[in-house]
Amino acid sequence: MADPPGCCAACATCLLCPYSCQWITAKKKKMKGLRTTKCDCSWFLFLFFVFLFTLVWLYFAIIILNDLHNFNEFIFKQWKSWFDWSPVLLIVTALLITYSSVLLVLALCLQLCCQPLKLHWLHKVLLILTALVVAAAFTGLGIKWVEEWRSAQISLQATGPFLHIGVVGGMTLLAWPLASFIYRTRNTGLRVFLLLVYCTVMIALYLAPLGISSPCIMEENQLPPKPALIGHRGAPMLAPENTLMSLHKAVDCDVQVFETDVMVSADGVPFLMHDEQLTRTTNVQAVFPERAALNSSAFNWTDLQQLDAGSWFLERNPFGTAESLSAGDHDEAAKQRIPSLGEALEAVKQSNISIMFDLRPENHSDYQNFVNATLGVILQSGIPLQQVLWLPDGFREQVKQQAPGVQQVYGRKRLQNEKEPLLHVNLPYQDMSSEEIRQYRQDNISVNLYVVNKPWLFSVLWCSGVSSVTTNACQVLKEMKRPIWLLPSSTYLMIWIVVDCVSFLIIIWAFFLLKKCSHRSRPAESETDVLLTKINSLMQE
């Protein structure tokens, strides 16, 4: 039998080897009568869906990177051991998507070369394992990290137009193996079904931009001002978090607000600390091993001053940026101690920026005394009260009475029957839509969203009109002069039409070209079938 047009025996063998794990030439395979069975087709469909499943997970993995530091902190609280999971996430995801992609490309090439799709049992097992791993990842995401689903929805505002182009391109290329299969199969029902499904999908994709919306589809002159930057615990990628060095690095990044967390020591001194235990960001296990598991507020100020609050940053390298520090910064980081709120207020006052903080832990039985101690330090510091942004909800009315100049920031959306208008809100970036951000902006309500680290997310929020963002990556967002992309609606409409037209023409060309190739190969195939029939008749006689 003649080899299929455009595919030599050597090429077919090279394709069959990794897919079927057999070194047999195409001619020998056909002589053995191997054909693609319904079972083989089912495994091809399974491979295709595993590829799509893994591709979706790759997208999620990229989105998750914005918030992965929170996951690392969560794991530390559970295991008491620090590990950066971002390389693991990226490597495992890359391996899964590469494996399924290579198998799918091999299968499509085999289909174009008219070779049987005999997937080896080892690949079948690995595909099932791939599907299970990705399913487990999605399940864990849904149980422990539900807000990331909302992050994915926001990400579509940044990637939607480009995902549309990519999907249209992929489905257009799929027309070649599909046309090859349709012209070779004798099952009319299957041919009609596949054509209907493919045409339906393509029509839906061609019209998909009607449902795609992005705040970055706007004219240049409609772009809102760049959001102000708020340093999340300072500049934690450049210095140990919640230290004076981190505060000064944040000032160098042009942040307008230093965001931090305040606790009160056993002897009534407010100090900067996020975690309820000191183990992650100090050497408390070495200095006070028998008390390391105690709440941070159980230590007096004298004990806290003995702790090293900087070496952990150099040892654990939480953001992968510690090795980029200069020698001077390296030495300064190693000398950091836990700062008191008074020291932080003095640094903020000298830097002419504002400070915003939470007071922890909110469920402490002595919380009112914590509020009183914190207010006392603020009033004694001499800092202009309008530079203090108060986040805690507990005893807020008391704070308004004792320090009326302090700016009240609320961690919730406004209510319908609000007694007094909100002027500042501070929310996770997943909790506000672009429409809500625009509405708050029109009503002169300052909206700060946290924690925003990646340029794509910052771009979406910038286009939406958010007032400010809390970030770990102030040094990165500082350098952005405009959103990553900004398209006038007329330009996007033109791109949409051109992409759809080019795709349609390529699909028509693919079906026309493969139809001509199938007609050329049919005479030879018919003569071969007649010869095989005669040989079979002679053998039976």
UniProtKB/TrEMBL annotation:
Membrane topology, as annotated, equals: Multi-pass membrane protein
The record, for SUPFAM superfamilies, names: PLC-like phosphodiesterases
Q: Which domain of life is it from?
A: Eukaryota
List, alphabetically, the PROSITE patterns matched: GP_PDE
Q: Where in the cell is it found?
A: Membrane
User: Could you tell me which residue ranges the GP-PDE domain spans?
Assistant: 227-481
Q: Which UniProt keywords apply?
A: Glycoprotein, Hydrolase, Membrane, Transmembrane, Transmembrane helix
- Which residue ranges does UniProt annotate as crossing the membrane? 41-65, 85-113, 125-143, 163-183, 190-212, 492-514
Q: Which GO terms describe its biological process?
A: lipid metabolic process
Where is it chiefly localized? membrane
Instruction: Cite the PANTHER family for this sequence.
Output: GLYCEROPHOSPHOINOSITOL INOSITOLPHOSPHODIESTERASE GDPD2, GLYCEROPHOSPHORYL DIESTER PHOSPHODIESTERASE
* Name under which the protein is recorded: GDPD2 inositolphosphodiesterase
What species is this protein from? Grallaria varia
Chain's gene name: Gdpd2
